[in-house]
Specification:
Layout: H1 2-51, E1 57-63, H2 71-83, E2 90-94, E3 99-103, E4 118-119, E5 132-136, E6 158-163, E7 166-179, E8 183-188, E9 194-200, E10 207-215
Parallel strand pairs: 5-9
Antiparallel strand pairs: 1-8, 2-3, 2-6, 4-5, 6-7, 7-10, 9-10
């Protein structure tokens, strides 16, 4: 009888230990994935750095259908990013929230919300006079939530974009929300070169937020 009780206790201990290990793995896996993603990002940014030393108007129909992030597409994105082979043509930096993220060309297959901060099809490049450089990315806690801290920004905060060996500096002048309908309207001064950032609204499943920066 004693041997039988010892065997039962031993089996219970093994089962308990197994679930403890599984719990620890689940708990730390998300931070580890983010850390691994940050390492890959720093590598790509380092490679990029080596390669370079009227009235208000409305721009409609900027497509934002893919801004919604789900557990399924973030897992696929992480796996795909491991296999992706691409280099950046520029970099977005926002010092206040410690954001430093590269972007690829509009023509690249990796100019996709599931891989990178993404240039909208309707966007001008930063060197276009009075143009509007439009970037989109997910927010939240997922692997691909590159704009997860934009909600901390305030009017007057600054951002910069490096492109073709030139740095363009901007100041935040407007923040507004729009309902998620698959498109957004962008309100800006067409006489000024602008940077527009679009992401899902913080803690809100029904809206998206647009950040308008004007060149300094």
């Amino acid at each position: 009888m004693q041997n039988k009780n010892k065997n039962i206790k031993s089996q219970l201990f093994k089962v308990g230990f197994f679930f403890l290990i599984v719990g620890i793995i689940v708990f730390v896996s998300t931070p580890l994935r983010k850390l691994k993603g940050d390492v890959f990002e720093e590598m790509r940014l380092a490679i990029f750095q080596l390669n370079i030393n009227e009235d208000n108007t409305t721009i409609n129909d900027v497509n934002t259908e893919n801004l919604e992030v789900t557990p399924e597409n973030t897992e696929v994105a992480e796996e795909n990013d491991k296999k992706a082979n691409y280099s950046y043509i520029g970099q977005l930096s926002i010092p206040k929230i410690n954001l430093k993220r590269g972007f690829v060309s509009k023509e690249s297959r990796y100019n996709n919300i599931e891989y990178n901060v993404t240039i909208a099809n309707e966007a001008d490049y930063p060197d276009v006079p009075r143009g509007n450089f439009i970037l989109m990315a997910h927010s939240g806690n997922a692997y691909i939530s590159f704009f997860d801290k934009l909600y901390r920004l305030e009017i007057g905060d600054e951002a910069s974009v490096s492109y073709n060996a030139v740095t363009y500096n901007y100041r935040l002048t407007n923040i507004y929300n729009q309902a998620k309908t698959g498109t957004v309207a962008i309100y800006r001064n067409p006489a000024v070169k602008t940077l527009t950032l679009i992401t899902c609204t913080h803690n809100d499943d029904y809206n998206q937020t647009i950040y308008i920066f004007e060149e300094i």
